[in-house]
Amino acid sequence: ISSSAAPSPRIVMSFWGSKVAPGAYAKVETPAGELLHLSQACLDPATPSGLAAKVLVEQKGTSYAVAVLKEGGVECCALDLFLDPKETKLKVTGKATVHLTGYFEAEDMDEEEDEQEPAAKSASKSPVA
């Protein structure tokens, strides 16, 4: 049995991680045409009791807190942020080191998915007699 459906595009995502000390910025080397999807911020496992840290996104001179972490309390925070490191920076403040993790994704991935949906929907419709 053969299928006439077009093969789906291959989606490639690559892991990213950075261990960021207090007062430092995350080092992000983004491949061309990709965005960083920041998925999680966690305190370093060796964080002494009671220490805290904030994860900030800096954009156009303004800082936004996206995670507030404290050892013995909230030690990990799930995130769902798409960032262009050319326009934003990630900084850790406070007294604890934070592990930031995520992955790189093509900037136009949503556009590719949107283009495929109408074709899939029209292919599934029954022919009109």
- For the record, give the distance between the C-alpha atoms at the N and C termini, rounded to a whole number: 26 Å
State the low-pLDDT regions, or none.
119-124
Structural class: mainly beta
The total count of helices amounts to 1
Percent range of helical residues? 10-25%
Number of strands: 7
Question: What is the general shape?
Answer: globular
| Averaged pLDDT | 83
Percent of residues in β-strands = 35-45%
Q: What's the main sheet like?
A: 4 strands, antiparallel
Cα gyration radius (Å): 20 Å
Order of helices and strands: EEEEEEEH
Strand order of the largest sheet: 1-7-2-5
What does this structure look like?
- It is a single chain.
- This protein is mainly beta and 129 residues long.
- It is 12% helix and 45% strand.
- It has one helix and seven strands; from the N terminus they run βββββββα.
- It has one helix at residues 109-124; strands spanning 14-20, 34-43, 52-59, 62-70, 76-83, 88-94, 98-106.
- It is globular, with a radius of gyration of 20 Å.
